[in-house]
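Hello, quick one for you while I still have it in my head. A protein chain has come my way and I'm curious about its shape. Can you walk me through what the tokens say about the fold? No rush at all, and the record is pasted right below.
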Amino acid sequence: MSINLITYQSETEWVSESLAFFHRTILNEISEAKDEDIHVIVSGGNSPIPLYRRFFELNLPWEKFHFWLADERCVPYAHSDRSETNIKSAIGSLVLNRANFHSIPEGEPKAIAEFMNEIIKKIPSFHFTILGIGEDGHIASIFPGENSNKQLEPNDMIPIYNSPKPPKKRVSLSIGCINRSNHILFLTKGNGKKNILEEVKKGTELPANLVFGKKSSQIYFCTE
């Protein structure tokens, strides 16, 4: 399955179109799921944050929503480097007071991954996933190179001890787990991402090219 790349010239349009795509897609998923819970994977980083800040505008049954982190840095809860901190701040209390947000515990990567695997394996599919793409083609905390042998591990969450970006200790959803998503939306922006997007379009062996939604895969790129 190919990834659909759409380019936007302004950040305002990029965020608005991202929100509109999420809204109409998740409404379809809610309609098909009927009384089932809605599972959404959210990623940290700078690119998705503007989208999360506008979730409160959407008239959705947030009580049905379960938010899952694509990855997390193994630092204490109070540490500013935790992805959860920035994501929850962006989504805001109007949504989170109604929705379910699944935090990743503190500790060593192996112990965290083992604990989370027991929870995540019970979820047959995710309705929507929001990811960024790093300038090296990484997604979540799966980087090219040394971590490549972890990309297709059968476990849903994998421990990372040698991340090229600090901190070195992290946990990440595996490629196989992310690929249980019905829809995947990659959000990325800035001229620094143009080269890696060309590599993604060419099909270069990168983590970003191993991820495909079962129903759709989109890259929304903002040049601004």
About this structure: The CA atoms of residues 104 and 132 lie 19 Å apart. The longest helix spans residues 11-33. Strands lie at 4-8, 38-42, 65-69, 71-73, 100-102, 128-131, 157-160, 170-173, 183-189, 216-222.
